[in-house]
Amino acid sequence: MIHNASIEKYRTPVGAVTCGSEMTIRLYETGKSVSKAEIIMYSETFHREYEMKRKKDCMEEHLKITNEAGIVWYYFRIWEHGRCYFYGAKHGQTQGEGMIYDDTPQSFQITVYEKDFDTPRWMSKGIMYQIFPDRFCQGNKKNMERGKAYHESMGRDVYLHDEWEERPIFGPLPGKEFYDPCDYFGGDIEGIISKLDDLKRLGINCIYLNPIGEAASNHRYNTSDYKKVDPFLGNNEDFKRLCQLAKERRIHVILDGVYSHTGDDSVYFNKRGNYQEPGAYQGEESKYYDWYDFNEDGTYKSWWGFETLPEVNELNEKFVDYIITGEDSVIKHWLSLGASGFRLDVADELPDEFIFKLRSELKNKFKNYALIGEVWEDVTTKESYGTKRKYALGKGLDSAMNYPLKVNVTDYLLGNQSAEDMKTFLLSQQCNYPKPLYYALMNLLSSHDIPRIRTTLATGMNENFPSREQQAEYVITSKMDQKGKSLTRLAIAVQFFVPGMPCIYYGDEYGMHGLMDPFNRGTFFENDKETYQDVLKLTNMRNQEKVLQTGHALYMAADDDVLAILRFISRKKDVFGEACENKALLLLINPTQMEKEIEIDLAEAKEGVSESELQLLSKNLTKTVVKTKAAPMDYKIIEL
Asked: Which of 112, 270, 558, 577 has the fewest CB atoms within 10 Å, i.e. is most exposed?
């Protein structure tokens, strides 16, 4: 009994499908002793059972997929020799070859998405660069003076670093009880402008900025004013100029949208009375009062219990009007200044309806504006607050931060999972994610919320880190750093070979180190120029080779350790039907300290790609069997 949900022979078509699609599902090696086989198919809204028809060499069923976007699951019920048993996906998997169960099994996944779903093509063809504004580059020292004066006039704590090379503050300031991210280095918008040519040389076509709006912290996720650039960074005219100069270099600018909460010290809540206009904390006379949920005793609902972050009701009409639909809404305000879209902070804590409305307004302005969500898990099956989320199915996000890729890449390179495990993960995203979203994924290895990739791979710490005080004392030896450097090369090679938009966290191109916040938010410096050259080689290749942007992808395990990724175009058209030259590039990753003799028969690779494409690929290749050596802790790129 065999069914492989990732191979067209067993499921036609493979991968995610649009609403109302037709599909054929087959079960092979069903001998004459099998008297009956059924497909049990279900979703949130239906449960159906289909009796399969016997063909010459299999049992199959041709069916029409639901017209409603969502996740559909299925498994098989089989009768043989008077016994009933089941066939479903292997434990922990939703694609690939299945297994027999005595009881209700794990199900295979079919992702059903909207027919008209598309994403900006510049995302799938581009390379992103993430900047934490205070720590990237100082362009105008007067901004530091203005920022200090402004925030201190509000009674806010401000600590200015004397030297760019100092370490961020990680504990309470003298005389204070708790840590407060109120230390500033003076990075600003002028500084980013001064680096635009450097970013262009690196091959960047999109800058993602952590929040730039006024806020009483260096990270600015506790918004004080949604429409005003924080004075430490400059002003709105500076941002407009940044966007204009970036556009001249064909670079998009994406802003952080923080819409699940505001700061308590803000125009909207005004708990400290710093703003002339009454805020929600002053009572019902405030036009912002309905944004928030107050209790009878005056307490209020806050984000994860942090009283400094009062939570908003995102579906409140006044809030929606202010952020999305009003004539001078927050999103329209920044788009008018030149922004190309938004990354939604904690997207899985925003209601789907809010995201749908935001997307609709955004795309009505210009279809190539981008909407990216912060989601840490599988974006198609994410469930939050008891609701199965549908923001990845065509009416919401264009893209999501691909944290699962970072977790699996690091686990693989650290030896915690095999090449086969890594292939299985890559295949699951390829088959489960809607194609437009899959090719626009924000593929990251580091961010402001996780340790830098070089540090993770040098220390071997993935997802588990000690306290801030212990991190401050942690020493990365030169031997550890060399390991981190070598493995980071491999991680970036994978990042640039899988479909999606690779994202470089500022300084990673120079091998910067950093554990958790705030150590991962250190000031930019050119730590390792050899690493920069390695990254530059990959960014150049990514920008020059259309096959790496919108070509098909085949994932293989060459042996227990070596991962193989083949990107190819076989019919002079890419996955979106755009004209391209036929090409095939093979990446081999060897994270071990041993040289490997590799032999791969590409004609045997069948998962995740249609049979017609694979047949054309075999015809176009000069050879389908690749025999080569994979050097230890290195990658190899072969043109076929």
From this structure: 577
What one-character-per-residue DSSP string does 277-318 give? S--GGG-TTSTTGGGB-B-TTS-B-BGGG-TTSBBB-TT-HH
- The residue behind tokens 């088959």 is 431
Strand ranges for 81-222 from DSSP E: 83-89, 98-101, 108-113, 128-131, 159-160, 183-184, 206-209, 213-215
Total count of residues recorded for the chain: 640
DSSP string, 387-440: EE--TTSSSS-SEEB-HHHHHHHHHHHTTSS-HHHHHHHHHHHHHHS-HHHHTT
- 345 catalytically annotated: yes
Q: For residue 241, give both structure tokens.
A: 């100029």
190 is catalytic: no
pLDDT digits (tens, 9 = 90+) for 197-214: 999 999 999 999 999 999
Residue pLDDT, tens place only, 544-557: 999 999 999 999 99
Which one is catalytic: 214, 345, 348, 574? 345
CA angle 542, 548, 549 (to 5 degrees): 90
CB 283 within 8 A of CB 289: yes
320 near 361, Cβ under 8 Å?
no
Instruction: Find the catalytic residue in 374, 398, 509, 574.
Output: 374
Amino acid identity of residue 139, one-letter, is G
- Phi, psi of 62, deg, nearest 5: -100, 125
CATH numbers and ranges of domains, the chain: 11-113 (2.60.40.10), 263-312 (no CATH), 544-639 (2.60.40)
